[in-house]
């Protein structure tokens, strides 16, 4: 048996697909579900561009098999909504943390997790947490400033 029927919740919608057992979650999201905001960079889990939230935890979708997402809740950049995501988007814009945009989906997923875990209280801590996400354009300072500004907010 080389295929498996799976059902998962993506961005709040329950979806099913018959997938090859070796298909990555990133390929399922992009090719089967049309969610092309999940970017593929290195396809080895090094760059972080494919990071999505799986059951609330940042996960490299290029490394995760689609079969392993059975019954899970996946949130891609297309589904990242709410006060924290909105505040981060605005802070990214204000801090010039957006340039080419290729790393942005993975950075946003990671930043949402940092805020949720209260791990965005210092520049050093944010830099350490972002170490798994590569950005070739921003120099990281804008990203760090944006995440730090949202992490300090008490209204979220």
End-to-end separation in angstroms reads 47 Å
> Helices and strands, in N-to-C order?
EEHEEEHHHH
Beta content comes to: 15-25%
Radius of gyration based on Cα positions: 16 Å
Sheet with most strands: strand arrangement: 2-1-5-3-4
The number of distinct helices, counting runs of at least 4 residues, comes to 5
User: Sheet with the most strands?
Assistant: 5 strands, mixed
Can you tell me the residue ranges where pLDDT is under 50 for at least 5 consecutive residues?
Answer: none
Total beta strands? 5
Which whole number gives the mean pLDDT? 95
Indicate the percent of residues in helices.
25-40%
Q: Which structural category do the helix and sheet elements fall into?
A: alpha+beta
Based on CA inertia axes, which overall geometry fits? elongated
Task: Describe this protein's structure.
By secondary structure, the chain is of the alpha+beta class. Helix content is 33%, strand content 17%. It contains 5 helices and 5 strands; from the N terminus they run ββαβββαααα. The chain has helices at 25-32, 83-94, 104-116, 123-129, 141-151; strands spanning 3-10, 13-20, 51-54, 57-60, 73-75. The chain has a 5-stranded mixed beta sheet with strand order 2-1-5-3-4, sandwiched between helices. A hairpin with a 2-residue loop joins strand 1 (3-10) and strand 2. Helix 2 crosses helix 3 (104-116), helix 2 packs across helix 5 and helix 3 runs parallel beside helix 5. The longest helix is centred in the last third of the chain and has 13 residues, at 104-116. It is elongated, with a radius of gyration of 16 Å. It starts with a strand and ends in a 5-residue tail after the last helix. The mean pLDDT is 95.
